[in-house]
Design a protein that fits this description.
Layout (H helix, E strand, L loop, with lengths): L2 H8 L4 H4 L7 H17 L4 H13 L3 E8 L6 E9 L8 E3 L4 H8 L3 E4 L6 H4 L7 E9 L2 E10 L7 H44 L2 E3 L4 E3 L2 E3 L3 E3 L8
Antiparallel strand pairs: 1-2, 1-6, 2-3, 4-5, 5-6, 7-10, 8-9
Length: 235
């Protein structure tokens, strides 16, 4: 089979719109976004794995994971993280940036649906992986590609446009949340660098700085400058 014919057989994104959509569950979506928002505030390290768990649950899939992009070595690779379900044993596996469905998804900048992608990509087939259908959506932090979310079904014809919409909205929310978190960290570092010479000046003036500027709930709080009292000399 020619390469163009094989690609047409494997990449079937246009079928998403032609299939009957899954009924919308607005309450489940609201709860999922609230869950992710709480974790971003309280336990940010749990956001990405929880994102994958929610994608599995809300699309009725058998496996899912994140392929996060690593620029080195050039032209880059995708490394699998937080893999759930049937393919969990492949957590940490890698695929080439320019020879994988994940690479196509970043190039397309939108949802991609594949059918038996192991028939086109040796990195998948050589691992003994068979994937009847995979839905992929890109994940960005701002305009920087972080990687892709991929969701696997054992049944051809499973995914539809509603699944793609849900996965895309979850990915968009996670990307925005991670961007905000990165912005807060850069702000904290900038304030720390700014305050460093201030602390030195205060010390030279016989003053001490208790506390710091800090971000909390998106609000900057300035703590008080307290004079250092000279110690009484022993008589």
């Amino acid at each position: 089979m020619r390469a163009d014919d094989r690609r047409h057989e494997v990449f079937i994104t246009e079928q998403l719109a032609a299939r009957s959509p899954t009924p919308v569950d607005h309450l489940a979506e609201k709860r999922a976004l609230q869950d992710l928002a709480r974790r971003m505030v309280d336990r940010p390290d749990e956001v990405l794995p929880r994102f994958v768990d929610l994608a599995v649950k809300m699309t009725g899939s058998v496996s899912a994971g994140l392929s996060l992009f690593e620029a080195d070595p050039t032209p880059g690779i995708f490394r699998w993280h937080h893999v759930r379900g049937r393919l969990a044993r492949f957590d940490g596996a890698t695929t080439p940036r320019n020879d994988s469905p994940c690479g196509v998804t970043l190039d397309e900048m939108g949802p991609v649906l594949t059918r038996h992608s192991e028939r086109m990509y040796s990195s998948i087939s050589e691992a003994g992986i068979e994937v009847p259908e995979v839905l992929l959506v890109p994940l960005y932090i701002g305009d920087k590609p972080l990687g892709t979310l991929w969701i696997v079904s054992d049944d051809e014809g499973h995914f539809n446009a509603e699944h793609a919409r849900i996965a895309t909205e979850l990915a968009t929310f996670v990307g925005i949340a991670l961007q905000v978190k990165q912005g807060e960290e850069r702000l904290r570092q900038a304030l720390e660098a700014t305050l460093r010479p201030v602390r030195g000046l205060l010390r030279r003036q016989g003053l001490a700085w208790f506390g710091d500027y800090r971000t909390g709930g998106g609000v900057l709080a300035c703590l008080e400058v307290t004079p250092v009292l000279p110690q009484a000399h022993e008589r």
